[in-house]
Amino acid sequence: MNPDRLPELPSDLKPIEADLAALVPASGTLNRDELMYRAGWAACEASGDSPSALTPSNRRSGVAWLWPLTTAGLVLLSATLGIVLATREPDVEVVFVEKTTRESSETEKERAPAAASQLPTTDDRVASAQEWLPQAPLLDRPQTRFGNDYLSLRERVLAFGVDVLPSYSAAPATNGSPAIGDSRYGALIGQLRGG
Amino acid sequence: MLGVSPALLGELLDRHGAALVLFARQFCASPEDVVQEAFVQLARQSDVPDRPAAWLYRVVRNGAISAARAQQRRRKHEAAAATRARAWFLPTEAAQLGAESATEALKHLSLEEREIIIAHLWGALTFQQIGELVGLSAATAYRRYERGLRALRTILGKGSLARPASGSDEHR
Questions:
Q1: H/E element holding A118?
Q2: For residues B124 and A2, which has the higher predicted lDDT (pLDDT)?
């Protein structure tokens, strides 16, 4: 039988054929949207393209590689810098500062002139003694030819010996001072002279 | 892309989707999954098949048979129950036959007769395409089709399965 020349369907079967053809098959749970989505995804995969790379902003191949290349470059740079930081020698300069010693020496240097300037000179001492001498009534104040300058007398004694001491005389007290008689001054002079 | 365009895919789905589900339902309990996978496979094709509908029926048939084998291994009884539970046709007022009675009548046919009737009536495949699909000659497919229709007329003509107000006997 030639397939192109199939006999026509008998007329008694045409009504049942028409009745059956009028029935609408149920599509069941076939989801058109899901099917079209999956089909589109499969078509992209079959064509060799990644479906996620087909967004309008990434369709240009150069732009699609921009961010991956940038990310890879930055990762490489970060890794290199990290390795350099981890392996390089520590560049630390140790400086010893003797702060305390320097300050003390400086302080001493600064204080030395001031202290020297504040030290009383011999004249100051003499003047001070002369100020205090009248206010010491209990001391025996010699009434000599040198006057009341005890220090001058002492210097002379130290320079030339006790011979320069004035001769002892039992002079009466003057100026309200106690009389130099058998006082300790006289005894002292005597001892100094070897007596 | 030289493959199937979305427009063609949508057109095929609208025109043959439900019939393909009915066709796959003759073999397995998950016809929707099989049909969906067939359309996905069609979308993967780099070149559009010469006869997309016939291509889809062949892919659905192979997929449904494979699914049925897997289901029989796993859940034989559950698959049979699912097949019985789902309606094959939508209830419409325009149809002279009731959806349930037509379904029951079709179940009385052999699997080979059912798939030929479904492929020709609702799939609009030629007997040549059906013969290629099921591995028969076009003439043999036609004879099986005619034999199936006679069996259906006999079953529905008994009145037990026909819709009472259908008046289908008037057409015979």
A1: helix A99-118
A2: B124
Residue B45 with chain A: CB contacts under 8 Å: 46
CA-based end-to-end distance of chain A: 183
Q: How far away is chain A from the Cα of B3, in angstroms, using its nearest Cα?
A: 8
Strand A24-25 versus strand B89-90 pairing type: antiparallel
Using alpha carbons, select from B32, B27, B130 the residue that is nearest to residue B80: B27
Residues of chain B contacting residue A37, judged by C-beta atoms under 8 Å apart: none
Q: For residues A106 and B112, give the distance between their C-alpha atoms in angstroms, rounded to a whole number.
A: 119
pTM beyond cutoff 0.80 = no
How high is the pLDDT of residue A60?
57
Q: Which residues of A touch B131 (CB under 8 A)?
A: 3
Task: Tell me, letter by letter, the H, E, C secondary structure of B36-80.
Answer: HHHHHHHHHCCCCCCCHHHHHHHHHHHHHHHHHHHHHHHCHHHHH
Is residue B38 within 8 Å of residue B58, measured between CB atoms? no
Instruction: Answer whether B87 sits within 8 Å of A15, measured CB to CB.
Output: no
Eight-state DSSP code of residue A11 = G
Q: How far is CA A180 from CA A133, A139, A142, in A?
A: 16, 10, 7
C-alpha B54/C-alpha B73 separation (Å) is 29
8 Å CB contact of A40 and B31: no
- ipTM of the modeled complex: 0.72
